[in-house]
């Protein structure tokens, strides 16, 4: 079935809009279902445009239907540009959590070729929240490791909502050691709210698993690139985030705690999440200014989910650029720079104690010691 819109003129009935695929309306409805609150003005204009195309006889008499359609489409683009160029940190976190945002497996399908998934940590079990395997990035053979969320409830349960268990981090380490053995560069994708905090994870030593990853990733002689593609939550993100280059997508975030968790602790109120997001300085722009990431990967207007193919192409180009730069460096120099990079994290300033006046010095010198 196809939908064609017609308009009645003096010359008869004329088709003015090209045929639309039958899935067009379903796609629009699906997009509207996952709209974010700040996208409401865009949705209202989209609904107005759809209503106009559905009932062309309602268009303004001063201009033609085609002109009015073009006018509304132009207004939609301008509104989208204004909204997405003035996003707050909390708005960007909402985009990072968008259910239609590309995940690790989506990038493995579109930005890489020849992906062969490897399973298990050889110690306890397979963790489907952590995926990885051999792949090709351009002409380079690489090892890719990343956290993976689900698209629906069933898959989210299987993937544990992207929160890896200890066996997930041990699986990631096993794959990275395999890459080091065969001298393959390592690329990691970070998209997790955090490591799984359940009793079972604690019993199997989740903190130890992450700590070992931090130590070992600092010592691998092969190039390592980490990309934050969505949520970068706490130690769960850092467990695969020690790298020579850390990239972050424009609307992703990287933080020691979620805004909701921060708000609950500092303000005793989770509704203060927007205030916490602002205070935490966790957006890509803030992280770049603080020196915690190396480069921001731009997203299509509307977020990565609005044009996944373009996003995958952009990310592939950035990964290739940094990989080729790293491959030119000797292993010893890469290790030295990697160590210096992470040692430079967490700068702080101390206020010097005020200098004592000469009289105060004299008085303190004459004070007898306590018995």
Written overview of the protein:
It is a single chain. By secondary structure, the chain is an alpha/beta fold. The chain has two domains: 24-86, no CATH class; 93-343, 2-enoyl-CoA Hydratase, Chain A, domain 1 (Alpha-Beta Complex). The chain is built from 16 helices and ten strands. Strands 3, 4, 5, 6, 7, 8, 9 and 10 form an eight-stranded mixed β-sheet that branches.
Describe how the helices and strands are arranged.
Layout: E1 3-9, E2 12-20, H1 24-33, H2 40-54, H3 65-84, H4 89-96, H5 104-110, E3 113-117, E4 130-137, E5 140-147, H6 153-159, H7 166-181, E6 186-192, H8 199-203, H9 206-217, E7 224-233, H10 234-238, E8 245-249, E9 253-255, H11 259-266, H12 273-280, H13 284-290, E10 295-297, H14 308-327, H15 331-343, H16 358-366
Parallel strand pairs: 5-6, 6-7, 7-8, 7-9, 8-10
Antiparallel strand pairs: 1-2, 3-4, 4-5
Helix pairs in contact: 2-3, 4-12, 7-9, 11-12
């Amino acid at each position: 079935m196809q939908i064609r819109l017609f308009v009645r003129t003096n010359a008869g009935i004329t088709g003015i809009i090209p045929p639309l695929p039958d899935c067009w309306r379903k796609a629009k409805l699906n997009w509207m279902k996952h709209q974010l609150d700040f996208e409401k003005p865009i949705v209202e204009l989209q609904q107005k445009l759809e209503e106009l195309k559905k009932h062309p006889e309602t268009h303004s008499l001063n201009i033609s239907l085609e002109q009015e359609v073009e006018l509304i489409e132009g207004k939609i683009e301008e509104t989208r540009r204004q909204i997405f160029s003035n996003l707050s940190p909390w708005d960007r976190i909402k985009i990072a959590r968008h259910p239609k945002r590309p995940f690790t497996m989506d990038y493995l399908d579109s930005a890489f070729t020849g992906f062969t998934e490897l399973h298990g940590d050889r110690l306890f079990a397979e963790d489907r929240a952590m995926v990885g395997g051999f792949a090709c990035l351009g002409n380079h053979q690489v090892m890719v490791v990343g956290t993976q969320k689900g698209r629906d409830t069933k898959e989210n349960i299987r993937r544990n909502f992207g929160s890896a268990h200890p066996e997930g981090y041990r699986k990631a380490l096993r794959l990275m050691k395999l890459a080091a053995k065969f001298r393959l560069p390592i690329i990691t994708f970070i998209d997790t709210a955090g490591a799984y905090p359940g009793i079972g994870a604690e019993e199997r030593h989740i903190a130890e698993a992450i700590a070992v990853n931090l130590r070992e990733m600092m010592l691998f002689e092969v190039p390592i690139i980490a990309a934050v593609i969505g949520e970068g939550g706490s130690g769960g993100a850092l467990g695969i985030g020690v790298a020579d280059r850390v990239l972050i997508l424009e609307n992703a975030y990287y933080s020691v705690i979620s805004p909701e968790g921060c708000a609950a602790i500092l303000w005793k109120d989770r509704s203060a999440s927007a205030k916490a997001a602002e205070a935490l300085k966790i957006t890509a722009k803030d992280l770049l200014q603080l020196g915690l990431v190396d480069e921001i990967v731009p997203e299509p207007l509307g977020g990565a989910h609005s044009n996944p193919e373009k996003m995958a192409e952009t990310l592939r180009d950035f990964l290739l650029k940094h990989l080729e730069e790293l491959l030119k460096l000797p292993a010893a120099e890469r290790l030295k720079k990697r160590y210096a990079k992470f040692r430079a994290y967490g700068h702080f300033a101390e206020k010097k104690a005020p200098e004592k006046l000469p009289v105060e010095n004299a008085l303190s010198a004459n004070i007898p010691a306590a018995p």
